[in-house]
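Subject: complex prediction, re-run

Hi both,

The earlier run crashed halfway through, so I resubmitted it with identical inputs.
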Amino acid sequence: MTWLVPLVVLVPLIGAAGALILGKNPPAQRIIAIVSLVIVLGIGGMLLYIVDTQGPLAMAVGGWAAPFGIMLVVDRLAALMVVVSALVLLAVLVFSVGQGLADGDNETPVSIYYPTYLILATGVFNAFIAGDLFNLYVGFEILLVASYVLITLGGTEARIRAGTTYIVVSLVSSMLFLASIAMIYAAVGTVNIAQISIRMADIPIDVQVILHIMLLVAFGIKAAVFPLSFWLPDSYPTAPAPVTAVFAGLLTKVGVYAIIRTETIIFPGPELNIVLMVVALLTMVVGVLGAVAQADIKRLLSFTLVSHIGYMILGVSLGSALGTSAAIYYIVHHIVVQTTLFLGAGLIERVGGSTSITKLGGLLKSAPIVAVLFFIPALNLGGIPPFSGFIGKLALFQASADQGSVLAYVLIGAGALVSLLTLYALIRVWNMAFWRPAKDVEGYESPLLDNVTEAPGGRTVQATRRLPRLMIGATAGVVVVSVALTVFAGPLFALSSRAGQNLEGPSTYVDIVFPGTSESGGIDE
Amino acid sequence: MSVSIVMLAVMATLYASGVYLLLERSMTRVLLGFLLVGNATNLLILITAGKVGSAPIVADGVAPEDMTDPLPEALILTAIVITFGVSAFLMALIYRSWRLAREDSVEDDADDIALRAGTLLVPSDGNEQDSSDSEFGNRGEAAISSARDSARSDDGMAPGTAADGGGSR
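This time it finished cleanly. Structure:
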């Protein structure tokens, strides 16, 4: 079944080409985009099933065997990430189709939106299944270049400014990544991840630590880990709501995914675990303090995003199978929930005309559906039982307690505090925007009037105020998925445990690429 | 692995000047810095190939030790293409930024300035403007930007940009 593996990358890429050719025909573009992602979701589901029941898949591109050819590797972690990403990408795509239709995109279409979106998907999927460090770099570049286009979409002044920050920071991180690949190649003479893992053991420990740090810094910028996270709240909020949603959900997680691979396969040793734990602590605390201080919903959500990256790093830094499993479950939970919240913010912007909580009010009455759709993921992210946020955090705390060091207990305390502060920040948003009556808002301007004055071209108020069913439907869909993560937490956590066990030590991964090279940890484990 | 000292020195110089330029506020300099750092990294990859030898595979009877390692060159080719594409995009970005704001420098974030001034809950104008154009493909956006361009070209600063405003969309 290895022929399924490259399709995950090929289908969206071909879809992007098709959508680009049909640039003058938006309905066809929409159909192509949605169909491509549905196909990938289907393939991802099949891959996950196959990988979980029959063992991981490795495919040598072009038929060249492992150390020479480029390997595509799908293990449980990769398959799970592909499925969740495809799901989220599809939901956000439907949301943006709804938004585009409502705005009368037919007349002035941004014809590059759908192709770029599919290219972004290509890059994300490619990064997940890359079995080769340089291919991982290419995957990163594909998704980054697509994201440069998406974040500056429309080319307004605010977006160009925000995009500039984002692009320059990403360029630096890419260059660091490329330089680390060069260094690793100089040290071990290969870019195949499994082979690097085998040969890295013979490299002196000081050289290993340098290479390790370089890779972590490169991935840390992408994942927005604390001292490297300042670009994120500056750049994400200005992009269009669906773009922010998909960036927040996926792009940072690709960085976290790369960190997991680095920590478990390339450098499985515990040298930097303490550093990572401290970094996780700072990321959680600094991020959430930023969130508490914000008045703009999108900025606030961007800060909570940074803060919750800390939880995932915490899971990875423990260096145990349980920690990795908990981190994997948390990533799945967070991709879905953070995307939902940003989609919710998009809906708020639409009904309220603003994302600043000082200007919003009375939305509970005017848009009760949005209130519910924002409330559920808000509680979820805040870690209120029985939602998946609670389960994920509980698993992380258990893994930390298992590790048992003082720092681990400090992290448990900080994690609990941060989840409370997250809850505080989000409930404040909900109270201000939805619950308080509109007349309490100082200098409240009806969004109705705003739209009359702000919409040139004489569009009717009705057209801008209506909440398209597709947007509501897409948001409701991801809310349902996030609730499903709670309902099916048992099987899902069992799956992430198996994925985490596969990553306990590099031997399983090495065995996938070079069958029979290591004794311990068979493929069927 | 033997490494040419000249290559190392060139690489170090490129990295140093590239990083210096990357730290500037002017976007054009950032672009130049990016190009230098990109080329420095390409050189670094080339250096990892080790000793220079004859071309691999093509000629018979060459011992593997005498061949040049071909993989780094393949990596560099890919990296060059990526750098090329990204710098083209950066140039477009700089041009757009210059046309919109008549400036080439990276400004501080409005919300950050407000935070520094101690006014926490600022209803910033930036966000208000965002809300009107956050739906991509908004027709109002095109109208505003082309109006802005034509207003500027009326000032005599950039003749012809108004026509571009319609075409570039």
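Confidence is low (pLDDT under 50) at residues 449-464, 519-525 of chain A.

- K.
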